[in-house]
Amino acid sequence: DGAASNDNLDMLEELRVLGLLMKGSTMDASGISNASLLAMATTNGGRALGFDDVGTLSEGAAADLVFWDLEDESFCPRNNVVSHLLWSANSRAVDSVMVAGSWVMEHRQLLGIDIDKVRFEVARRARRLASG
């Protein structure tokens, strides 16, 4: 999915909607497993895009990692982390992100990005698009 379909670009929300659609279309609460949803977002998602080196924690795989704050209330009680990730958590629970082995966000602080400049540029471009 993308910004043409919705504006929040939250991967977890997309997985949750997919899971709910699968459960609703089959009229079965077990219509799709947590393992299947997680695989769709990781290994299978990469394969669908033609990438064999993403979506796994293995030697030689791309080092794109998301570190979740397990102290976030969406993981409480911490009895099933995968279930909480898929059904309760959202992007606010992300603590740190690594892309291609380099930190792009650490402890909720974006690195190498001037967020005020980004916000200014987004607003400028939005005004230009709105004016035709």
UniProtKB/TrEMBL annotation:
Query: By its UniProt entry, which Pfam families does this protein fall under?
Result: Amidohydro_1
Q: Where is the Amidohydrolase-related domain?
A: 1-104
Enumerate the SUPFAM superfamilies for this protein: Composite domain of metallo-dependent hydrolases
Per the record's keyword annotation, is Hydrolase included, yes or no? Answer: yes
Q: What Gene3D superfamilies would the database entry show?
A: Metal-dependent hydrolases, Urease, subunit C, domain 1
Assigned keywords, A-Z: Hydrolase
Report the transmembrane regions from the record. none
A GO term for molecular function: hydrolase activity, acting on carbon-nitrogen (but not peptide) bonds
Domain of life per record: Bacteria
In terms of InterPro entries, this protein maps to: Amidohydro-rel (IPR006680), Metal-dep_hydrolase_composite (IPR011059), MTA/SAH_deaminase (IPR050287)
Q: What is this protein called?
A: N-ethylammeline chlorohydrolase
